[in-house]
Amino acid sequence: MPLELVDHRADAAVKQSWTPFPSSEDYEHPDWWSSASGAVGDPWFVQVLENGTEVARVQFDDPGGISPHYARVPTVGGERLEIQHIEVAAAARRRKVATRVVRALVNRHPDRRLFAYSGDADGFWGFLGWEPFYDSRPGPAGRTLFIQPNPEGLRKCAARLRPRQL
Ligand SMILES: CC(C)(COP(=O)(O)OP(=O)(O)OC[C@H]1O[C@@H](n2cnc3c(N)ncnc32)[C@H](O)[C@@H]1OP(=O)(O)O)[C@@H](O)C(=O)NCCC(=O)NCCS
Asked: Which residues form a coiled coil (predicted)?
């Protein structure tokens, strides 16, 4: 079943009072989608529907920032676009929803290079075939940075999915 991406965007001037998504018990982490007050610039969220039912929520940070403290990071300029958060509804997990969401976002933004700092989801980003980069500073490790690979890498990722999962 194809996914539908619905943008929820607002002006930065109203982000303190604007609510990106209604409250839902289908998600575990209301801290990021219940308020846009932490957004940098104009808040930009994406609602993901499958057959009319919401299955995931995403927040972009446009363009987002790549930390200079991460080692061997390729040069990514103004084309970068950060997936600040992605969360799949608890009941919809482990059936490739997040995989299809990220693929759909990549397809929708062919001129951008997506990246994300993993919040406890290194296994997922690694599954996508995105390359990991690590905080080189001493001390507690920062979140792993994953950057969308070149188009060849994306084709390899697609080949790992059965046609019905695309
Ligand atoms: C991480 C998350 C987005 C994955 O969503 P999903 O739709 O279940 O992921 P997919 O079904 O597309 O997973 C594809 C593959 O990624 C890997 N993967 C997914 N979730 C994983 C997890 N929690 N731990 C380790 N590997 C995981 C697996 O290899 C999986 O394939 P498999 O199910 O055949 O083993 C979802 O678990 C979630 O919303 N978690 C809470 C919020 C969060 O951590 N977001 C990420 C912030 S960066």
From this structure: none
